[in-house]
Design goal:
The protein has helices spanning 2-17, 20-23, 45-59, 74-81, 95-107, 144-153, 168-180, 192-200, 211-219, 267-282, 302-322; strands at 32-36, 63-67, 89-93, 120-128, 132-135, 159-162, 185-188, 206-209, 224-228, 256-262. The chain has 327 residues and is an alpha/beta fold. It has a five-stranded mixed β-sheet, sandwiched between helices. Helix 3 (45-59) crosses helix 10 (267-282) and helix 5 (95-107) runs parallel beside helix 11 (302-322).
């Protein structure tokens, strides 16, 4: 008995002293697939691939990103929901996959092909980030009080570019309309680049976009910043107030990208992926941080990530339901 105990303790000590890659050999045992519901080179694809490169080097096993666009992310999400819960398939998910699409389907009276709550385990946050409400200089306003006054003088006549009906930019606009008690026209674009350019040139009055996209046009005077959709000001754009500072604390929009596992995935694997993601995003002396300008990667545990997604689900499902938004 003593010899067996000594053997086990010795094995534990060896495991603790083993290199990081050696300790991870139980998982992953083969290449890990990360599916996402949009095309290559997009706002979800780029940070997901950057993380996958780091995770591949960390574990000595390839983390392969697979693009499966279509259905607003539902095709990729269904594939992951049906995958074996063994830690070798994950979904790089955002609001569309985790709640928006389900609410849009419900408004249209259509059955949704999976259950975002029961079918997935939120595992690791890649990033989240606020938007910036910007207006064309041709509108003649440079602050929220001025924009609010103009919107109330011209109900329904101002317009906002959004990517598509049901997109996070659209829902943020609907939230702003409700909280500020104003009316403006939503203008969806099939080509987001064209929509953004139309705000810069004054064809459209305003939009909510990312700090990264708006920073240089603001500096060049092509756009005027009004407020950010966060609970705090954004580093690097410290002179732009939050909506909370203007008395609208509920105008918060933090679209996210998170790795989610099929339901039933062992907790130990979820924890291992969570820890590895947090450490690889943070970087180190020889590796830069992976979180870009205007985004943030708080080190959420799986439980904290699940709570954040649940709060977001409650907020945006209500906006979609109350506004009877459907696609």
């Amino acid at each position: 008995m003593k010899d067996r105990r000594s053997f086990l303790l010795g094995g534990a000590a060896l495991a603790a002293a083993a290199p990081r890659g050696a300790r991870a050999q139980a998982w992953p045992a083969r290449p890990v697939r990360i599916l996402l519901g949009s095309g290559a080179g997009g706002s979800v694809d780029i940070p997901t691939r950057a993380l996958a490169v780091r995770l591949s080097a960390r574990f000595g096993v390839q983390f392969v990103v697979e693009n499966r666009p279509g259905g607003g992310g539902t095709i990729a999400a269904q594939a992951v929901a049906r995958a074996a819960p063994d830690g070798h398939t994950f979904l790089s998910a955002g609001p569309a996959e985790m709640f928006n699409n389900a609410a849009l389907f419900a408004n249209a009276g259509q059955a949704f092909p999976y259950d975002p709550v029961r079918d997935f385990v939120p595992s690791a946050l890649i990033q989240r980030g606020a938007g910036v409400l910007v207006v064309t200089p041709k509108l003649g306003v440079s602050s929220w009080p001025e924009l609010l006054k103009l919107a109330r003088e011209r109900p329904g006549r101002l317009n906002m570019f959004v990517g598509q009906i049901g997109a996070t930019t659209h829902l943020a606009g609907e939230l702003l309309k409700r909280e500020a008690q104003i009316d403006f026209t939503i203008v969806p674009y099939r080509d987001p680049a064209q929509g953004f350019n139309d705000v810069r040139t004054g064809v459209v009055d305003m939009t909510i976009s990312t700090p990264f996209e708006t920073l240089e046009p603001i500096r060049r005077g092509e756009l005027r910043p009004i407020a950010v959709t966060h609970t705090q000001r954004i580093a690097g754009m410290d002179d732009i107030p939050t909506f909370a500072e203007y008395g609208l604390p509920r105008v918060v929009n933090l679209p996210f990208i998170a790795l989610c596992a099929p339901a039933g995935t062992p907790e130990a694997i979820v924890r291992a992926l969570n820890r590895a993601t947090i450490e690889e995003l943070a970087g180190g002396p020889a590796r830069p941080k992976l979180t870009p300008f205007g985004r943030e990667s708080p080190p959420f545990s799986p439980a904290e990530l699940a709570e954040f997604i649940a709060q977001e689900r409650e907020r945006w499902t209500k906006i979609i339901r109350d506004g009877n938004i459907r696609v």
